[in-house]
Amino acid sequence: MASEAQRRTQLVEATVHEIGEARSLNVTVSKIAKRAGVSSGLAFHYFGDKDRLFLAAMRYILTIYGAEVRGALAVAQTPRDRVEALIRTSFSSTNFRDDVISAWLNFYVLAQSSDEARRLLSVYHRRLHSNLTHDLRPQVGDRATAVAERIGGLIDGLYLRSAIIPQALHGTAAMDHVLATLDIEIGQAQ
Amino acid sequence: MASEAQRRTQLVEATVHEIGEARSLNVTVSKIAKRAGVSSGLAFHYFGDKDRLFLAAMRYILTIYGAEVRGALAVAQTPRDRVEALIRTSFSSTNFRDDVISAWLNFYVLAQSSDEARRLLSVYHRRLHSNLTHDLRPQVGDRATAVAERIGGLIDGLYLRSAIIPQALHGTAAMDHVLATLDIEIGQAQ
DNA sequence: TATCATTGACTGATCAGTCAATCAATCGGT
DNA sequence: ACCGATTGATTGACTGATCAGTCAATGATA
């Protein structure tokens, strides 16, 4: 017998793996439960329904991403280092794992129809934006907000491209483009 | 009785509408057929299976987008105008219709598991990239390729954000950011 | 004994895809 | 003009499979 917390984690991780394997949200609760080594009944017992299991998986992904960002920021010294840390984290190997990519894409789709999913996604966006703005201000002053918007958008867009069509744009190249944009924006007259 | 071409178009358009309404690919062929005013059997008769109906819908969206781009380019005079036209078209009202947004997002998901969907998506990417590169070259010289990559990525990323969380970023604002980036990139020393 | 974890068989609903049958248009021959 | 035949358009009932969610029963623990 395991504690509720352990089971929830197992189920959530299994959900991410299954989504990654199916490359869509078309995964059955039974398969998820099987992968987690429990019965389907238990999944329903703890999460109520499939939607809430998906949302828990989304929170899990966002939590890990958030932790990675915090870790990277912790070792950064200058504001410039901190912005670079934010960019590099977005293109880290963690975020290029097949299941993580698939999860993100499907969460974007889910965000269209689920208020809670949209809320979670906008929390991520706001946090990234506020981190960027904070560390860009010493470097670009009043332009910080606008530059943060552009750097953030560029991260999302290039991530999307390199995740889906890696032949056309490797993750490393994508990251370099964002860093190049950062240099250009910082070099602008204020 | 209607011709095969007419029926195919009706079914494809109905598919886009249904995807837009469901905000996912979880739509039944029966509902699509009903919306198109025909029986489900006819949909299978013409498209074979659901996947091929989705791919046809994707081609339809990309064709319309391509036509809009061609139209906008036709009236543009200078290279700068042409790049602007490409950017503005990506944020046109057509592309902000709910069903079109939903279709795009779901096509990104589909591209993970369907070779044909990925192929279609990379055709779109290559075309945008080559258009951008061509018209950027007179303005930024050898940097054209890199700048095109960044502008293209920014378009995708900001489109995604403004499509999903319009409260955080209106489509118009998103477009302005891309145009601002264009100015900055052109203003760079070569 | 009381409580919590866990199972897995079961139900009801949904849906992709099939198929045999009907309906409409066209055409070649008379 | 008329007719049978051929071809293509169209239907919708049907099947087999899948799956979300339920629930009564069992196992473990304190």
Largest sheet of chain A, described in full?
none
Oligomer: homodimer
Question: Unreliable segments of chain A (pLDDT under 50, ≥5 consecutive)?
Answer: none
CATH architecture of the domain at 58-187 in chain A: Orthogonal Bundle
Q: Kindly, what is the distance between the CA atoms of the first and last residues of chain A, rounded to a whole number of angstroms?
A: 62 Å
**Average pLDDT rating of chain A:** 96
CATH homolog superfamily of the domain at 58-187 in chain A: Tetracycline Repressor, domain 2
Topology-level CATH name of the domain at 58-187 in chain A? Tetracycline Repressor, domain 2
Q: What is the tally of beta strands of chain A?
A: 0
Number of helices, where a helix is a run of at least 4 consecutive DSSP H or I residues of chain A: 9
- Which value, in Å, is the CA radius of gyration of chain A? 18 Å
Shape of chain A: elongated
Q: In percent, how much strand structure appears in the residues of chain A?
A: under 5%
Helical content band of chain A: over 70%
Structure description:
2 copies of one chain form a homodimer. Chain A is 81% helix and 0% strand. With 190 residues, chain A is mainly alpha-helical. Chain A has a domain of 130 residues: Orthogonal Bundle (Tetracycline Repressor, domain 2), CATH 1.10.357.10. In chain A, helix 1 packs across helix 6. Chain A starts with a helix and ends with a helix. Chains A and B meet through helix 6, helix 7, helix 8 and helix 9 of A and helix 6, helix 7, helix 8 and helix 9 of B. Chain A binds a DNA duplex (30 and 30 nucleotides) through helix 3.
